[in-house]
Amino acid sequence: MILVTGGAGFIGSHTCVALSAAGYDVLIADNFSNSSPERVDGISEITGKSIHCVRADVCDRGAMEELFSRYPVDGVIHFAGFKAVGESVAKPLEYYRNNIDSALTLCGVMSERGVRKLIFSSSATVYRADNPMPLDENALLGCTNPYGWSKLMIEQILRDLALSDPGWSIALLRYFNPIGAHESGIIGEDPSGIPNNLFPFVSRVASGEIRKLHVFGSDYPTPDGTGVRDYIHVMDLAEGHVRALGYISSFSGVEAFNLGTGKGTSVLELVRAFEKASGRPVPYVLDDRRPGDIAVCYANTGKAEEKLQWKARYGIGEMCRDGWNWEMRRRKG
Ligand code: UD1
What we know:
The chain is built from eleven helices and 14 strands. By secondary structure, the chain is α/β, with parallel strands linked by helices. Uridine-diphosphate-N-acetylglucosamine (UD1) binds at residues 85, 123, 125, 148, 177, 196-198, 201, 213-217, 227, 229, 267, 290, 292-293.
């Protein structure tokens, strides 16, 4: 059985669908601080299987011990954590405490129970901004905000853990920009309040919920002057976890993998693709750069292709189609 912490969240829920389709028995642990139990019902609806789910905070050692004693967990995918970059700058102590404490608690209980297969949900944000593109896994590391540092610190903790005991098999998955939704439209991303990230913001402009998009920067050294990112369909990302789980079953140590498409898309290209997929206009204004943003970021995906036998299948049009499908269902409630 695979324990998925934060399994009711955006990437976690889609990964549960992919795991279940691949034949894994899934157990979700989530405190629903930024998600809801309805998401778990959505996973069951898609998979046609009932999903085990425990409401628990991963920082709660007693709750984790109980969970490991009740269920036959033999591997863990750790998604649970705070993830808003801006909020992490305002509340660094909360971010460090929650993200690092949950990883330490989880690994402590896993160690005690002899469960040493772990996939950690990391981010491309662990790479320094001054690396040449595309980024491979050996690019220089360094962050600009507490959220990113918490990911990088946990990567280091996991490397030290694996050095102390060769029984550990750990994959660090560094995500680029996950967007889109399951093609059924039953689950997707649902940020509360005004979204900070481009894709959910664009969805809400297309639906009419928000009046217009502010394009942050039109003077970057890119073909159309707007920022370029490596957007990846969340179901491709989910499949990457399934492959990584297979990989670590016959591997010991720690290995980092980029999960991206290897292709860059600009803000304006994404806007046009979304307009085409939705048949709705996405009004925008060109605005100043957002502090902390870089011009271009995309992955070298060679390592994941070679070692995980994984490659993203979906293009930007499909990401927009599935994201829009979800947005329409979300609005209908
Ligand atoms: C951000 C985080 C990153 C995190 C990722 C999760 C920052 C600096 N980085 O990445 O750590 O892992 O989200 O997906 O916050 N844009 C607009 N208008 C908007 C919003 C965004 O023009 O209203 C532009 C940005 O300037 C950027 C692109 O869209 O060029 C993508 O932005 P976003 O979706 O926020 O992702 P990142 O900044 O790449």
